[in-house]
Write a structure and sequence with these properties.
35% of the residues lie in helices and 16% in strands. The chain is α+β, with helices and mostly antiparallel strands. It folds into 2 domains: 279 residues, 4-Layer Sandwich (Deoxyribonuclease I, Chain A), CATH 3.60.10; 42 residues, no CATH class. The strands form 3 sheets. An 8-stranded mixed sheet has the order 3-2-5-6-4-1-14-13, with helices on one face. Strands 7-8-12-9 form a 4-stranded mixed sheet.
Length: 397
C-alpha cells in the first residue's frame, strides 16, 4: 500500500472536550461518549477512478469490551483545552495544507485520522483531493474514521493505526493487529496515532506519567519484535494548550516495522513536519529517501500579488496616462519586479523560512515551554496560512 519513496501520514485528530457526552453522535443525549473502536460493525467505503466508482462494505466483528469502560482518566489528561485550530478535514485551511504537502512530497500513501466528516460529504472531499484510489472507514459521529489514499504497488503489508484513548480498546487493537499478520515473515510497516507513549521522555509533563498506561504498548512492541524508526524534528507529535499552564505534549504518533521490512528498506527515515491546522504533526515516512526538490520557482506574473495591499498603488504609480500601452506594460513589469524584491518577496522562499521557523519553535517547545514561543508559533502559523493561500493562487494561474 505504500510507495518505496515517501508514504505520508497527516493526522487530523482534533477532539472536542466541551460537553463530550452530550453531543450528537457521541453517545446520545447525556449518555457515555461512543468510541468508534467499541462498535461491533464499521462501514468501509472505497473510491476508484477519482471517486467515479464508489462501493460500500459493512464489516462485522465482536468486542468483549463493556460500553461502561469506553472512557477513562487518560481521556481527560490527554485532551486538555480545545485546540485553537480549524476543525476537521472539511475546513479550507486543512485542505490547503494537505494540498501543499502532497505537491511538495508526492506521497504514494496519505493517511488521515479522525477527519470528523462522514457520508457523501466525505466522499466528495476524498475525490476533491485528486486521489485516484482511496479507502476510508466511516466515522462514528465525530469519533474514529481513517482515510487512506492508496498508491502502493510493492507487495508488503502496511497498517494505518488510530489507537483509542481508552485503555481496554487500545489493548484489543494490539491483539487484533498481531492476529491479522498471518505470515510472520512478511514485510510489515505500522504507523499512525497510537495514543500511547513508551516512556516518560515522550511526554511534556513527566510528573503525571504512569508506566502502567503504556505497559501494554511496550509489551506488544517487544513481543512482536518491532523496530521504532525514530524521527527527525520536534520530539512531540501532539500538543494542546494555549499557555504554559495548560500546555501538554506527547509523542503519540510513530512508525514501527518488523525486521523483514527494515532489511528491505535499511535507509528508511521518519521526519516530523511542522504542525499546521491540526493538534498533531504530520509524519513523513521515506522508504528510500531522495534529495529531489519539488519546488517550482519559475513564473512570469504572480497572481498572488493582486491580494497584497500595496499591489494597486504599485501599478497606479508606474502607469502613466500620457505613455503608450507597450511602454506602460514594460514600466509596470520593471516596477513590479522591484516591488516584489523590496516588499512582497518570493512566496516559496518565504514559505520555506516560515516552515523552518515553525519547526524550530516546535522543537524548542518540546524541550522547554515558554509563553513567547507559544505566541510566536500562533503568529507564524497565521502568516504561513496566508502564504499558502498566495501560493495556491500561483498554482491556479
Amino acid at each position: 500500500m505504500v510507495q518505496s519513496q515517501t508514504p505520508y501520514q497527516v493526522p487530523n485528530r482534533q477532539p472536542n472536550t466541551a460537553n463530550r457526552g452530550n453531543q450528537r453522535g457521541r453517545g446520545g443525549r447525556g449518555g457515555a461518549p461512543r468510541r468508534a473502536a467499541a462498535e461491533t460493525e464499521h462501514t468501509v467505503v472505497r473510491g476508484r477512478t477519482y471517486g467515479k466508482q464508489i462501493s460500500t462494505t459493512v464489516v462485522h466483528h465482536q468486542t468483549d469490551i463493556p460500553e461502561s469502560s469506553c472512557r477513562n482518566d487518560m481521556d481527560v489528561e490527554l485532551l486538555g483545552d480545545p485546540p485553537d485550530i480549524p476543525r476537521g478535514a472539511a475546513s479550507k485551511s486543512f485542505k490547503r495544507t494537505l494540498s501543499y504537502f502532497c505537491r511538495k512530497f508526492h506521497p504514494d500513501v496519505v493517511c488521515l485520522f479522525e477527519p470528523k466528516v462522514s457520508g457523501t460529504h466525505a466522499n466528495r472531499i476524498c475525490s476533491s483531493f485528486g486521489f485516484e484510489d482511496w479507502i476510508r472507514v466511516e466515522a462514528v459521529g465525530f469519533s474514529g474514521g481513517i482515510w487512506v489514499k492508496d498508491g502502493l504497488s510493492s507487495p508488503w503489508v502496511f497498517s494505518a493505526v488510530y489507537g483509542s484513548p481508552n485503555l481496554p480498546l487500545r489493548k484489543k487493537l494490539f491483539t487484533d493487529l498481531s492476529a491479522n499478520i498471518s505470515d510472520p515473515h512478511s514485510c510489515w510497516l505500522i504507523c499512525g496515532d497510537f495514543n500511547s507513549v513508551t516512556n516518560r521522555d515522550e511526554v511534556s509533563n513527566t510528573e503525571s506519567f504512569m508506566s502502567s498506561r503504556c505497559a501494554d504498548f511496550v509489551d506488544w512492541i517487544s513481543r512482536e519484535g518491532l523496530i521504532d524508526l525514530g524521527f527527525e524534528g520536534p520530539k512531540f507529535t501532539w500538543t494542546r494548550g494555549k499557555n504554559t499552564t495548560s500546555y501538554k505534549a506527547a509523542r503519540l504518533d510513530r512508525a514501527l516495522c518488523n525486521g523483514e521490512w527494515k532489511l528491505r528498506f535499511p535507509n528508511a527515515k521518519v521526519e516530523h513536519l511542522p504542525r499546521l491546522n491540526s493538534d498533531h504533526i504530520p509524519l513523513l515516512i521515506s522508504c528510500n529517501p531522495a534529495t529531489t526538490s519539488y519546488e517550482c520557482k519559475k513564473f512570469i506574473f504572480n497572481f498572488a500579488w493582486t491580494i497584497h495591499k500595496d499591489f494597486r498603488s504599485c501599478v497606479r504609480d508606474s502607469w502613466l496616462p500620457n505613455r503608450d500601452l507597450e511602454d506602460n506594460k514594460t514600466a509596470m513589469a520593471v516596477a513590479l519586479i522591484e516591488w516584489n524584491k523590496r516588499s512582497f518577496g518570493n512566496i516559496f522562499q518565504r514559505k520555506k523560512r516560515l516552515m523552518a521557523r515553525l519547526k524550530g519553535i516546535q522543537t524548542h517547545l518540546s524541550l522547554h515551554v515558554r509563553q513567547d514561543l507559544i505566541n510566536l508559533e500562533k503568529k507564524l502559523s497565521k502568516e504561513l496560512e496566508i502564504t499558502l493561500h498566495q501560493e495556491e493562487l500561483v498554482w491556479f494561474q
